[in-house]
TrEMBL record:
The record marks 178, 237 as: Could be important to modulate the pK values of the two catalytic cysteine residues. This is Diaminopimelate epimerase. Belongs to the diaminopimelate epimerase family. It comes from the Bacteria. It comes from Bifidobacterium samirii. It is an enzyme of class 5 (isomerase).
Amino acid sequence: MSIPQTVFKTHATGNDFVVYADPDGIYEPTADEVRFLCDRHFGIGGDGLIRLAHPRDVSDLTAAQVAAAEEAGAAWCMDYRNADGTLAEMCGNGTRATALFAQRMGYADRPGGAPFRLATRAGVKILTSLGDLEPFGRDVFRVDMGGWRRGETDTFTVTLPGADGSARGTYVDMGNPHVVAVLEDGEATLPAVEALDLNVKPVVAPVLESDQNVEFVRIDRIDAARGVGEATMRVHERGCGETLSCGTGLCATAITLRAKTGVGHWDITVRGGVLRVDVTDDDVKLTGSATVVARIDL
């Protein structure tokens, strides 16, 4: 096997991962091993697998990506794989789970220390450890997710096989691709967020070049005096179906809501908890908790 005997189970607002450290760069997993570890019946179970390694030991990173990570001060890389074994560019919740794991392993500072610079396939992300912080929970991190790119609003039509109706979707690039459908919009005829079956893969038309992560969103409240909105989101992630949370999806959602309402700060409820997303023209920040569940000897 090309995975170590000891791995860890983690989650960040219910988005769960199998995680292990590979400081010597000798445990790059195969797709079959990822599928085995992430299998909820025959393995450990997770929405994905995270290998914490040095950037130079992640074989699919280019020399330019490795040099950029090292120049930015990122000694560690989140080598993230979807549950089906495919490579993923980014995972916002995964960065928080990785940072907490790195703290526990002694690779990152505890709350009050220096920010943790983490390389990903979508560039270096900077995480600040905030400790316990209500209403977000224990072991909270704020992630500077960097720049973003949004297409024209409501360009795509999103449907669900077996469900009547459709909704308009907006493309957002967070280093990985998203289409965000706001269900309150006048053209949305899909059922309410709670009624959706997101284990069925949504259909996005016209078809984009790559498989999409798709978010379905309901605006719950906007506090104009504070400039903060509240929303509820559910997400279908490519490679694993519905997950309880999706960090890049939360960011894509807040970016889309800002375009529609002018509000740049959102408390978004997902099935795994509540997270804060703060959007500006230049970047987006994601704040939420992380948890190390168990150490597992295979």
